[in-house]
């Protein structure tokens, strides 16, 4: 008894195959998102660029002088990380700083983030535009050192 034609088998294989295409703007896999949501997980080397905050997706109004970040749409997840602190490290120069997640970066891939100008300037001159960093969410309730 023949269950599928060659064409039908091909379609079943394609539809059943996992597809992780976050690098081209399609939703990241649930496994990738779940992994990064855990506060102890550090992102792989990621790009960080500058953005100018205002009224963010978390409902907070921030300025260029506030240490805030925007995260990918997938990680934002309806506000699951609103106002959660993030530890950001530039291994190239040894600088570590903290920023609060307040907005969505619709153009960011899963691991990329955007930094307010004052936060970006802690790592590099603003003219640099894009830097490579590692980052992770801090536990809920965390407050950065003063």
TrEMBL record:
SUPFAM superfamilies: Barwin-like endoglucanases (SSF50685). The keyword Signal applies. Residues 1-23 form the signal peptide. Coiled coil: none annotated. InterPro entries: Expansin_CellWall, RlpA-like_sf. Keywords: Signal. It comes from the Eukaryota. This is RlpA-like protein double-psi beta-barrel domain-containing protein. The lineage of its organism: Eukaryota, Fungi, Dikarya, Basidiomycota, Agaricomycotina.
């Amino acid at each position: 008894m023949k269950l599928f034609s060659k064409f039908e088998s091909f379609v079943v294989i394609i539809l059943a195959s996992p597809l992780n295409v976050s690098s081209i703007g399609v939703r990241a896999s649930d496994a990738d998102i779940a992994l990064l949501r855990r506060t102890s997980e550090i992102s792989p080397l990621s790009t960080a660029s500058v953005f100018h905050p205002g009224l963010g997706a978390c409902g907070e109004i921030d300025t260029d002088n506030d240490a805030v970040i925007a995260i990918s749409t997938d990680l934002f997840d309806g506000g699951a990380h609103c106002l959660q602190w993030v530890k950001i490290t530039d291994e190239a120069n040894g600088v570590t700083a903290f920023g609060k997640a307040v907005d969505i970066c619709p153009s960011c891939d899963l691991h990329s983030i955007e930094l307010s100008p004052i936060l970006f300037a802690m790592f590099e001159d603003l003219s640099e535009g894009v830097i490579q960093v590692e980052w992770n969410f801090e536990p809920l309730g965390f407050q950065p050192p003063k």
